[in-house]
Amino acid sequence: MSSLAIQAEIALVDCAILRSNRYKSLADNSPDSSKDQTGVADAPSAPWYWRYAIAVFGVVLCLIAISLSARFHLLIISDMFTEQGLAVLLGIALGIVYLKFPFNRGDLRGAVPWYDMVLALLGMGAMFYLSFRYQHLQENEFYTRPEQFAIGIIVIPLVFEALRRTTGWSLVVILAAFFLYAVFADFVPGNLQGLPLVPIHQKLIPFLVLDNTALFGVPMTIICTIVIMFIFMGQLLLKSGGSQWFTDIAISLMGRSRGGSAKIAVVASGLFGSISGTAVSNVASTGVITIPLMRQAGYERKVAGAFEAVASTGGQIMPPIMGAAAFLMAEFLEIAYTEVVIAAIIPAFLYYISVFFYADLEAARNNIAPVPEDQIPQFFTVIKEGWFFTLPFVVLIYALFNLNKSPEESALWAAVSIVIVNWVFGYKGRRMTARDIYAAVKDTGVAAVDIIVIGAMAGLIVGIVTATGLGNGLTIVLVTLGEGNLWLLLLLTALICIILGMGMPTTAIYLLVATLAAPPLIKLGIDPLAAHLFVLYFGIVSLITPPVAIAAFVAAKLADAKPMETAVASVRIGWTALIIPVLFVLSPSLIMKGSVLEVVVAVVTAIAGVWLVTAALMGFGLRKMNSITRLGFLVAGLALLLPAGAFQGGEIVDIAGAVVAVLLVGREYLVRSREAPALR
């Protein structure tokens, strides 16, 4: 991502920084915010009628998405294709983009210029027409008609410009590169040579617009049903006060412990990051609470920002939602969603336990005090005030795992239950009003615009990869480069995923890496689920890895820290995200594949290894360590991290690591015990 794009992305959270200045205490954070969240178009300089138009479009978009998810539309039009609904949603999304986002990213939107009105009308008109004519055009897909090309030549450039306005240049450049490949595929040398889709008016454009593996394929289907439903659920949780309640729970549980303020950030940001689907927006929303809290406790600016960035990024790999990646993964692999969730539990647990260890050791090393007592709510008081907010999640899990409902249906029922329990019990004497529900519907529709445009981009890329055979070619190239060497292939794949994932939302990251980077791993014999989790992890790591590290940069802005220093600190704190994927590729026991004994042993030794490596990286375990001791901790920790079944002789390595660890920790304990009386 270009520096201009990064600056524009960070500029969007400046308003969050202004809000963070008010968080001298957590009591200032009201869950009952009725402020409009529709973005730059809602600035006071925007005429009221444009704000009204955007709100109306947002409501309509959300309601249509709900209809598609619950299949209400089939009650009216029994033979309606899902793609027809997706076309309408894309048309509305394009309309909102050109009314809401000005030509220059980061500018406040004033009066909408005539050319943006024309672009909005073109996008909506073309997609509405396609929806109306879709069945006829799709049946005659291979008989090229002028209207097929006309629709495509209008919509595809509009998607390019919508991408630029909403996400910056990075995705535009990637999409343009794929289009160039589609046109000149037969000129590419070697195994990457593909089938050219030319002439474009007869092959490329009609295929991308009409084929159900392209524009309206799996990415758009998942985003416009499952993802939007979880955004809606999150908006209702926010409007009902549930988000504040979960934050209060984290504070009441962790506030009194060593490093409590950082642990609060880990819990709160991890929970909301899983639902939000983008680490950047999660940093901006929860960071205004957690970062000032950590700064007040005594954490360095860069460390406070890094904890928030790492926790929010980790939410994208935390089941059951995983920033919507879990649903996409289940679709790609054609397996049950529950299988993905179960496989992701242990890796996510190890990721977060390492961050907890780091927070605890950082607090011990720097004598950081717990959260002040007057800022910690009483646990049982918090439970009494909002215990019912757990019920929607019970509904969600029960519908998914017991009733075998689809994710979108389960999320819809959970969303409805949020409203019901709030009306029945109320939160701090307040119940949701019709205005709150309207705001949740509107904000869901407007917030979904970015991800719908990204879904359109991903669909176009998947269509090009499918039609040209690029996926097979890239698989051959990577397998050839690896020459059967698993370690080299893992390294190459990890680098590709980090590059592809730079600065993008979770859904876009996974769609790219799953399409391009996972097949070579599967070709070499790696478990398909492990391969997809591997590429997801390394795609997500790009959010905290220099040089882009957009989540870390936004956190640095909130913490008033240096961006690159915050990014480096983020990598140090989130180091397990670089190691864990390699471990579960080597031994599937870490993704719940194997006997109970194998899984238990792998988890126990991994936890011990995580603590040892974290202590080695910090130079502090039971006390400050010298270089030799740190090296010993590092070696012992890495030995314990390697699952016993990863390779022949793995059990011996585990035992040796455990013996060395016991000796080193025992020595550190004895030395600290001798030093303690002297200090007194």
Structure description:
The termini are far apart. Helices cover 72% and strands 0% of the residues. Mean pLDDT is 81; it is low at 1-44. It is mostly helical and 680 residues long.
Short description:
This protein is an all-alpha fold. It has 31 helices and no strands. Among the domains are: 28-214, no CATH class; 597-680, no CATH class.
Largest sheet data? none
Structural class label: mainly alpha
Rg over CA atoms, rounded to whole Å, is 25 Å
What's the overall geometry?
A: globular
Termini separation comes to 54 Å
Number of helices: 31
Portion in helices: over 70%
**How much of the residues is beta strand, in percent?**
under 5%
- Secondary structure: number of strands: 0
Kindly state the mean pLDDT as a whole number?
81
Low-confidence stretches: 1-44
Chart the SSEs and their pairings:
Blueprint: H1 3-11, H2 14-20, H3 48-70, H4 73-76, H5 82-100, H6 114-139, H7 146-167, H8 169-184, H9 204-210, H10 218-240, H11 242-254, H12 260-276, H13 279-297, H14 301-314, H15 325-333, H16 337-365, H17 379-386, H18 391-401, H19 407-425, H20 434-468, H21 470-482, H22 486-500, H23 506-516, H24 518-523, H25 528-541, H26 550-559, H27 563-573, H28 576-586, H29 596-618, H30 627-641, H31 650-679
